[in-house]
Design brief:
The chain has 167 residues and is α+β, with helices and mostly antiparallel strands. It has five helices and six strands. A four-stranded antiparallel β-sheet has the order 2-3-1-4. Strands 5-6 form a two-stranded antiparallel ribbon. InterPro entries: Dimeric_a/b-barrel, Tscrpt_reg_AsnC-like, Tscrpt_reg_AsnC/Lrp_C, WH_DNA-bd_sf.
Length: 167
């Protein structure tokens, strides 16, 4: 791949990561490239699974929908020739599971899970996750408030409630 094409791809990726709804014609203008060239690059990166999907970030607290998000640390026994992949694959196939990451530290996997209630999430951990062969232990952390998610500040800053006093 030539340097110009690689630089264009990186520019496209950086912009799409923050503004996934951009029109390809508008993106081409921003990149200083032809619309067809940008469209071809985006299509190629989708085909290569460099671009894996497009997502909308929603502040569920403002919708009235009850939703509980938990981060679950999971310690597992790696399997011969498969490492952590078999257990990670089993976990990410559950519809409640939002994300699975291999991490460093005291635990091996970090699972992000969404449910309607604390009890529902706890039941998932105790009935589906913990009994998996190779899972040694779990630690569940519930997200109480999101301040920033995917690079976006959630909510709005509150203005100071102090009155301005001038001499």
């Amino acid at each position: 791949m030539n340097d110009r094409k690689e630089a264009l791809r990186l520019e496209i990726l950086r912009y799409l990561e923050k503004h996934s709804r951009v029109d390809l014609g508008e993106l081409a203008v921003l990149m200083g490239a032809e619309e067809a060239e940008v469209a071809n690059e985006v299509a190629e990166m989708e085909k290569e699974r460099i671009i894996c999907g497009y997502h909308t970030l929603i502040d569920w607290d403002k919708t009235g929908v009850e939703l509980v998000t938990a981060l679950i640390e999971v310690r597992v026994t790696p399997q011969r020739d498969r490492g952590f992949d078999r257990i990670a694959e089993r976990l990410y196939n559950y519809p409640e599971v939002y994300a699975v990451y291999l991490i460093s530290g005291s635990y091996d996997l970090l699972v992000t899970l969404e449910g309607k209630t604390l009890k529902e999430v706890s039941r998932f951990v105790s009935e589906k996750l913990s009994p998996i062969d190779g899972v040694l232990s779990t630690a569940t952390h519930f997200i109480l408030k999101k301040y920033k998610d995917h690079g976006t500040i959630m909510g709005t800053k509150k203005e100071s409630e102090r009155m301005l006093v001038t001499p």
